[in-house]
Amino acid sequence: MNDTTRKFDTLLIANRGEIACRVMRTARRLGIKTVAVYSDADQNARHVREADEAVRLGPAPARESYLNIEAVIEAARRSGSGAVHPGYGFLSENGRFVEALEAAGITFIGPPASAIAAMGDKAAAKSRMAEAGVPLVPGYHGDDQSDGVLREQANRIGYPVMLKASAGGGGKGMRIVEREADFQAALESCRRESRASFGDDRMLIEKYLVRPRHVEVQVFCDRFGAGVYLFERDCSVQRRHQKVLEEAPAPHMTEELRAAMGEAAVRAAKEIGYVGAGTVEFLLDTDGAFYFMEMNTRLQVEHPVTEMVTGLDLVEWQLKVAMNEPLPCTQGELTLNGHSFEARLYAEDPANEFLPATGTLTRFALDLDGAGLVAERVRLDSGVEAGDAVSMHYDPMLAKLITHGSDRDAALATLNRALAALDVQGVVTNRAFLQRLAGHPAFKAAKLDTGFIERHHETLFAEPAPPLDAYARAALVALETLSKNVAQAASPWARADGFRLNAPHRVRIALADEREGSEAVVVDATRRLAQTGWTLRVHNACFEGSLASLTGDAVAITLDGHRRRYQAQLDGDTLVLAEPKGETRLRWQRLDALNHAGREAEASFTAPMHGTVVALLVEPGAPVEKGTPLMVMEAMKMEHTLSAPVDGIVEQFRFAAGDSVVQGDVLLAFTPAEQEAAP
């Protein structure tokens, strides 16, 4: 690349969702016109609505739209864009894309193609890092990719090992292998996932450190040879090797270790002639030793926590460096201020192995005033609004909630309050799981490592049964809903709310919590003549309660003289009561259907999400044991395996490998062993 000035006044963002919206905010502040691109699935998406103009790329599948290099470059030409910001994911680390932009005379907001190539191949990158004196985890990243050699290398390194896609990232094409017997199946699964995500199935193997922390360093380099590190982030709390909670600075970090890691990161960047924003990721062992893992040659999802503790706008730095300006600061001018957390809000079901979820967001709002939070301490980076659809085609991340405080305790307290104030309905999300995670005693004590979620699985995933008074409060909301229906009825004979002339008004309401196998609880509600409140019997408990509607969805519920404010709504057949401490979700069921839901759920195998069938793992008619993998599905670039819930026989697969399925489709016919043996 030459050193001539590259000014531009129009920027195309070759991405979607929250990162596209976030880049637009900085561009607008700098007076740069923004251009969005979109697929057919995103034609009404928020990033399209917020851009100055937008250009269609193609159909919904990413390979036909966001990954279509020719279509993106044509969109830049049509819109007169002088530069393209890739965001993260999609084409952000595609060297061929960078070269095509250069050939078209369009500036790429990122490093040169040579730097992307150097770090994009993880095996080659490790060799270069070894030459630069950057410490490495013991492993294998050679050219011989035969099954036998890979198995031999895994045995040499010693189990457990980590299989990783050489061209990959984002947790795709990665598996921990605990023993040799599991190696081949893990290898085949990683290769399939890597081919689907990156078009490349080469693997590397690393020694799996049992309890390391994932600490990464933000680096920035300009075109004049200067490089700095903007301190570190701890990203240890992960699921499926993808980050969930991040923070800056890393807890328990000494100034000496910070400097050593930062200098190693800058050395790694300069080794490959890096320009722009990049992140060098390390594994930090319990003895204080750190090892190079990989370098992400782009802006990271978690960059906002670095912005919060440095007071800098990293996208602004990216744009200035791309315009051939020098770095705005030297290393000595950079300072840390306080502490910051980021929580990633995903459309996924933590209780169901984090399977992605789809649907329409009926509510999406952050009530800072109601939670008593200061806007300067809380930031919500989002690519969605209420009314938006969540598609099966792309990553399930909806938003990032970022908080800041004078120290770690203050920032974490703000995060917990902000999570409680985040109102998201219509799509299953991990919000409640994030609350349990951020409130966990071990997390508060900063006892972190990459196995945190697995090690604390029992406490993080075991949702306690709602207390009896929660059923009473939900029943009051249900009674209010029934009253509204009565008010809208054309005839008094249409009433179904238990009204009786000259007799106590009595209604029975069945409510069930969302834990698997939970039975419904019947609330017996009675209101006597001339009384405004209700007497509510839940099992052996008795409550006196009333409800008053406030503005919007807000209600005031009084139970035995204790008045509390909630956000209440009916989401399908689920009653939702939200307050700063969290939310209660109870399904409102018909009394005559109480004994059928469990048996119906067991009677069929249904697709847990929209996706594609990847592989059928057993032959029809074959007897299988409980836990046997039966079918592999792929959705949102991740594989999901359906297993036998009990011993039995797979009678028939109703879809073949390669078929698309819709959430709720019955995938196979299965006969439990008990039924098979019955006379």
Automatic annotation (TrEMBL):
Domain Lipoyl-binding: from-to ranges: 600-671
Stretches assigned to the Biotin carboxylation domain: 7-458
CDD domains, per database record: biotinyl_domain
Co-factor(s): biotin
Protein's name in the database: Acetyl/propionyl/methylcrotonyl-CoA carboxylase subunit alpha
Domain ATP-grasp intervals: 126-323
Keywords per UniProt: ATP-binding, Biotin, Ligase, Nucleotide-binding
Entry keyword Nucleotide-binding: yes
